[in-house]
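User: I'm new to structure prediction. If I give you an amino acid sequence, what do you actually give back? Let's try with this one:
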Amino acid sequence: SPSRGLGDVYKRQVFMPNTKKEHEPDEKNPFIKQTIIEEKKDQRKRIVSAACLAVVFGIVAGPTTALTSHIINKNILSKKTKTTIQIPKEETSIEGSEEAESSEPVEDIVASAIESIDLSEKNLEQMYAGLSKVAENKDNTIVKISAITTNTDWFDNTLQNESSCSGIVVAKSGDNLIVLTTNMSIEGGIRVGFFDGSVKEASVLGTDSLTNLMILSVDISSMGEKVKSIEPIVLGNSYQLKKGAFILAIGSPVGVSRSLDIGNVTAIEKNASFFDGYGRVIYCDKHLDNRGTFLIDTSGELVGVISNLDGDSPISMAYGISDLKMLIENMTNGVGSSYLGVRAIDIDKDKAPEGMPSGVYVTEVRADSPAYNIGIQSGDIISMIGDEEVNSIIGFKNIMEKLKPNQVVNIKVSRSGKDGFTELNFETTIGARS
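Assistant: Good question. You get back a string of structure tokens that encode the predicted 3D arrangement of the chain. For your 434 residues, that looks like this:
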């Protein structure tokens, strides 16, 4: 039947009953005995022929196999192919990632949770020891990044300064480790120090000035087995992170490489406006150094990166890792991410004045960006990019991710004036984030 698998294929043999004894002649069917004898003779001939063919095939197959193996090794296996790194993305959108709300009153949930917790000193010590163990298990993924810069003093003496931060191994490509770290000057070269004390020169694969992040590649083919056994940290799902959750800060949270801090998520801003898009901002309950500090959850998965969001804030803010996965993949593979240089927000149609066009409202234009150079201003409403309409900040982000650097597109905006809104068209060449 069609549903039968390969293992169900079988041969059927039909045996006809013969009630006569082998020595008893069959006068009605005298051909039966003769047919059997001839079949046995033919069978012997086939066996002899098959044996001869097997010998001939064996003689020919040996040299042929050797020649084929030589050709494959020389022309195929010896060629090195460039491996493309793919970062798994979340299938759920930001809106769809929220868990269903419980019908149980919040007060009852909190009271039940408090009653079930034994807040003895011993249990608290065990809890923090367990959290520290999670961070300790990821310590070999943390590396120290050192960059040398050269300056000249008043007397023309050459001075070398070393700046450092932490990085974290996020992927592996053949004999190369892929490291995520903070963007820094690399004029005099850059070195990566591993947990076993070994040091190796690194090369820069990509940088992003908007998030202040950088991707490095380190060739470990000549290094020890400890370094070769490093497994990249798992990139988690920051959309599932909840307010109040325990969070572990690893890397350089106190300004020293391989330091550790334990805290909580105090707030999550779900639709924060970023340049050319939006995403989540994770707020922590303390101030952490933003030069190579990474947030992991209690499962040991990377969920956030402290970078350039906090400024002078007494608490730290982090990019959710789910919003950075496409950027990390592009930087790793040398693919430029599109760059326009605007912050935008959705228009609240209930509060918008009558006659306001649909689109996204520009709140900021970055200096020297493609948008700035063609004349787009704060207060403009972007309604179309290329042949695609822009109806929301989600749509704006999706369009920007599909655009390629150096692509020429027309951008339609509406600008408010004393006589109402005027429609303007700007032709621009999309830039590349670097």
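You can read the tokens as a compact description of the fold. Here is one thing that stands out. The first helix runs from residue 31 to 77.
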